[in-house]
Amino acid sequence: MQRPxxxxxxxxxxxxxxxxxxxxxxxxxxxxxxxxxxxxxxxVPIALxxxxxxGRQWFKSSQGLSASETSREISFCGHAILGDGVFLIPDATQxxxxxxxxxxxxxxxxxxxxxxxxxxxxxxxxxxxxxxDQQPRKLDDEELELLRDxxxxxxxxxxxxxLATLDPLTMISNRRGFETLAQQAISMCLRRGEVASLMYFDxxxxxxxxxxxxxxxxxxxxCEFASLLTKTFRDSDVIxxxxxxxxxxxxxxxxxxxxxSALHRLRARVxxxxxxxxxxxxxxxxxxxxxxxxxxxxxxGDIMNEADELMYHEKRRKRAAWENxxxxxxxQQESA
Length: 336
Hints:
By secondary structure, the protein is of the alpha+beta class. The protein has two domains: about 10-140, GAF domain (Beta-Lactamase); about 175-335, 2-Layer Sandwich (Alpha-Beta Plaits), CATH 3.30.70. The protein has ten helices and ten strands. It has helices at about 10-20, 30-40, 75-80, 100-105, 140-165, 175-190, 205-215, 215-230, 255-275, 300-335, and strands spanning about 45-50, 55-65, 70, 85-90, 110-120, 125-135, 195-205, 240-245, 245-250, 285-290. Strand 5 and strand 6 (about 125-135) form a beta hairpin. The protein starts with 9 loop residues before the first helix and ends with a helix.
């Protein structure tokens, strides 16, 4: 078995890694979403975000593996961070570096490994996004590019820790975090010829909730709506609070029927929440939804602006309907 050597910039690499405060931290949806997506897209039993510490590799996110860490001496990721490209082992039993590795001869019986280094800061390779199979296999050029895309998204999430792109109230992405992740997701869809759709939400009558019930209650509404979004949409979709009472969801690999179904599920879920909550107000919202069109949308901001305009068109229509209803009710009272 060949033990991985250490990079020349090991001291600076470890300093950068530890400055992120990710080691031994709790699981985070931002990373778990990526490993779930990798596991599904590549049809593998194991997908990991691995961080290579001084004497161990520690898994920030793990799908299909119960261990939280292994020794660096036996790690595949320790080898992967020594280079810039995807570290690929088609069949570990046929590789002199790994054929007698405990991870190969015992559980989890690694045969295939592909890991893309995660680069943060001044070129520091802190770990990998990797996939593992218990059967030998290969990756074609498109699959290699997809793995690199997922790794870039993981890097963005690590940078997001530094840039504070998480909304502290709702614990979903803020505007900066959403735009970064959504742009990455759209680029991936364009490369693979897949569809992406964006939904822009604005809560209706939110100001009266703050005015009549207090800002603490308004904050509770924001958190509850964010929770309803995360429960409704898929793990691989990008969800963010854009600002104030505005939210956005980017759904990837979705067709029109999927989008309509998701919006229907959200309406049903919000209606049930309102019935169960039995408050003096209901959570209601307006939404603008649009498919990404590369002929009109060059960056994620373009599609966000267009969906935002559609959302405000719906909001204006609702406001006009409420005003007409109020006038009609007033006329009825005068007649009585």
